Every structure is written in C-alpha cells, then in structure tokens.
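Hi R.,

As promised on Friday, here is the backbone we talked about, encoded as structure tokens. Could you run it through your design pipeline when you get a chance and send me back a sequence?
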C-alpha cells in the first residue's frame, strides 16, 4: 500500500531543542551532534523519497529493526567526527568505543580503548538500553521513532521518522547488569543499563524533541535496546 509521500520526509531537528549545558567529552558539542542528526534525516528523507517513487517501502520498513537501529548508530559515529575535528571514527573492526580522540591511536584504530572515547548506540526505546559487555564507557544514545517491517501486517499507521531524544553520560561497570535469556532463546547474552545508569544518562540530556511528552512516553514500550 502506497503511503503519503510526506511520510518519507523525517521530522526536522532544531537547534533550539538541544541542551547547550550538556557535558560531552573530547571536544564534541551539542552543535556537532545537531549537525550529524540533520545530516541523517536528510539522508533518510532522500532514500525514502526515491524508494517511494519506485513504489517501494521505506528504508526503515525494509530492514530488520535491529539492523536499522545499528545503521542509525553507525551513521552517527561516522558523521560526528566530520563536524568535530577533535575526534575520529574508530577504524578497528568491531573496535570499542566507536569514536576516539583524534591523533591518539595509530591509524585511528583501537581494539578496546575503554572510557577513552564515545560509544554510540541507537534505540526505539526510552529505557532498557543494551551493550555486549559490563564496562566503563562514555555512552551516547540516540532514541528515535520510526516504522517497522511488521507495521503493515499489524495495521499500524505509518509515521514519519523522528529523533525523540539524545542522552549521554560516563557509565561505570556498576551501571550495567547482564540481561538474562530463557533456554529456548538464541539471542546473544547482553548487558543492560541499570536504573542508576539510566538516571545519569537522562540527567545529562543532549536533545529532547517537543514530541517527547508524557503521552508519547507512555506509547513507547520498554524493550530490548537494540531495536
């Protein structure tokens, strides 16, 4: 079913909705984050508009939810360094964290630099964010709302992509706990941010959409943070 082409254009990110007092390390500012988010919405709007002209579903309705979230985070980790020359993308395959201080590591590659950098994640959920390890890390998470491949079958009304919030804070090992799984699950064992870690993150908010009102929060089901 073809949708209104207006739904292919993500909602605009405005500088006035960012927190100028947010503490972000390594020279990254809220303006760098804003520019990167705007670049992503431009990218997604272009892709979705082109897909629509060919009668195809939007990009976010094509990819598995976890894959789309991963794509959002990868885009941010690649784009923030283009706007902030004090940091670089970690070029080590599956290296941690995603963003490193510029000029500190050979070939801008570090297998595991710990808290010496910024780890980027994206999620459709307002809580229960996950990682693969219990560790000290400066975590920045981009929360968004978008369609899913299952929406049509569930008769869920299409929505425009929108960023809802960006939070960031230095988390320690004590701010994580391993997430369990049942015996039938094939899901990789992960670690989840605790309530204490969550409090650190939201107290240092970087961006909040006007759409992030109590009613909207109630509609967002807390779930696994990789979707």
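Update: got your reply. Pasting your designed sequence below so it's all in one thread:
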């Amino acid at each position: 079913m073809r949708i209104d082409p207006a739904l292919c254009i993500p909602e605009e990110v405005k500088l006035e909705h960012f927190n100028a007092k947010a503490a972000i390390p390594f020279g990254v500012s809220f303006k760098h984050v804003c520019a990167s988010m705007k670049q992503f919405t431009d990218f997604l709007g272009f892709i979705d508009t082109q897909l629509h002209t060919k009668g195809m579903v939007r990009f976010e309705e094509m990819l598995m939810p976890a894959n789309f979230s991963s794509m959002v985070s990868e885009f941010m980790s690649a784009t923030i360094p283009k706007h902030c020359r004090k940091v670089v993308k970690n070029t080590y395959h599956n290296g941690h964290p995603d963003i490193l201080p510029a000029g500190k590591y050979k070939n801008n590659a570090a297998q595991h630099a710990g808290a010496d950098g910024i780890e980027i994640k994206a999620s459709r959920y307002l809580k229960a964010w996950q990682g693969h390890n219990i560790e000290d890390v400066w975590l920045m998470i981009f929360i968004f709302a978008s369609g899913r491949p299952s929406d049509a079958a569930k008769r869920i009304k299409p929505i425009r992509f929108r960023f809802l919030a960006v939070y960031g804070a230095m988390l320690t090992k004590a701010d994580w706990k391993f997430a369990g799984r049942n015996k039938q699950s094939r899901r990789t064992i992960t670690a989840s941010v605790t309530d204490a870690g969550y409090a650190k993150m939201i107290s240092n908010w970087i961006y909040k959409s006007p759409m992030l009102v109590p009613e909207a929060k109630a509609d967002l089901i807390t779930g696994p943070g990789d979707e």
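One thing I noticed while checking it: The longest helix spans residues 30-53.

Thanks again,
M.
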